[in-house]
Amino acid sequence: MFLAQHVAGPLAAENQNPNPLLPDAAEMVVGIFAFLVVLFFLGKILIPRIQKALEERTDAIEGGIKRAEEAQAEAQRTLEQYQTQLAEARQEAARIREEAREQGAQIIAELRDQAQAEAQRLVDQAHTQIDADRQLAFTQLRTEIGELAIELAGRIVGESLEDEARRRGTVDRFLDELEDRARAGA
Amino acid sequence: MSAPHLLAKDFEAPGLGLFEWKPLFHIGSFAVAKPIVLCLIVMIVVVAFFWAAFAKPKLVPRGAQNLGEVLYMFVRDEIARPFLGKDAEKWMRLLVPLFFFVWLGNIMSVIPFAQFPVNSRIAFPAVLAALVYITFWVVGVKHQGFFGLLKNATMPPDLPKPLYVLVIPIEFASTFLLRPFTHAVRLFANMFAGHLLVALFATVGFHFLFEKLTPLGAPVGVLGVILTIAMTAFELFVQAVQAYVFALLAAFYISAGLYADH
């Protein structure tokens, strides 16, 4: 009974008109004790832990974002590299095509020149051959014409010409005259 | 206990006896009554919950840590940061225990068998308010100096000189004398009145439906039951709001100690 009155502080339970605004001593002691226990466990141990965890999470998320940005930049660089290489390859291909066209044209021109030269050569050869044949025909014809003319003249005139040298001279002169006439006529 | 008046011949509203508890047992020179037991239960529950939530925090939270983080971030974003800014993280170590110790103490009001708000006993809000008041002084003297604190708290800048005659006594009284009392009494009175109201309606229901069931009295008893339920829901809201306000004011008082221009 004594203890109960003592610890109940200013307000004993049997007080008929208790003042609720007067704090009870025992409750104050327990209140501060209980709060300090909570303060110790939460403030000293648990809240620093969760703060550390939240900080690490922030770091992890920021790190993840940074890594993603780096990967994107890397991909962008690679893409640009590929595009540059592709453009170079296209230029190279265009250059090679151009060269091939020029070479083709050159080859065609050369072949054409060669063909023309060959044709010219054949034509020249033909001309030479023709000239030679003509010369030969002319020479043979001349001899035969001479003999025929002489034979004909002998038959017509009825006389044989004894002097071979003289006869030949006459024929030759005649033929030269013919030749001169032909040349003058041309 | 407060039961005897319920047996009275006519209806008798519950009074201040509702808040007076006979000792359950004694430990040494301590008489342990119900509010003390509830206070210790609150202590154990708060520590146990946060131990389960934050003892081994994971980068990807699971279970209790999820709930713990939501509650932690509520206190951080709604109470600590608005007043303490970059110093918020450090003061979370005081504000989180304060908020949850008060809130759970209030919630005891609606827990079956407990059914008593711890903070309707002025002793509990008083020691917490005193702790905040002492913290305010320690932080204030450390950051602004004794006279700096007095001057910054009582002399708002840019006022006409004659007004200081009025302002200084008012500011001094409100900041240094009344604050701890209003801080404690605001919480105490809300819990006290809420509990009294719920008890009144519950008593009405009990009296007119069980003790003195009459055709005329029955509707009053039903109304009492309905209002008891409605008031209990409202009390749940008030309990959270008062815990929030208590921690918010603590953050505000500490910020008044930390920073000169407020």
Give a topology summary.
The complex is a heterodimer of chains A (186) and B (262).
Chain A lengths: L1 H6 L17 H133 L6 H22 L1
Chain B lengths: L24 E3 L2 E3 L1 H21 L9 H21 L3 H20 L15 H22 L1 H9 L9 H48 L6 H41 L4
Antiparallel strand pairs in B: 1-2
Can you describe what's shown?
- By secondary structure, chain A is mainly alpha-helical.
- Chain A has one domain (23-185).
- Chain A is 87% helix and 0% strand.
- Chain A has helices at residues 2-7, 25-157, 164-185.
- Residues 1-15 of chain A have low confidence and may be disordered.
- Chain B has one domain (3-258).
- The longest helix of chain B has 48 residues, at 164-211.
- Chain B has helices at 34-54, 64-84, 88-107, 123-144, 146-154, 164-211, 218-258; strands spanning 25-27, 30-32.
- Chain B is an all-alpha fold.
- Chain B is globular, with a radius of gyration of 22 Å.
- Chain B has a two-stranded antiparallel ribbon.
- In chain B, a hairpin with a 2-residue loop joins strand 1 and strand 2 (30-32).
- The chains are: A mainly alpha (186), B mainly alpha (262).
- At the A-B interface, helix 1 and helix 2 of A face strand 2, helix 1, helix 2, helix 3 and helix 4 of B.
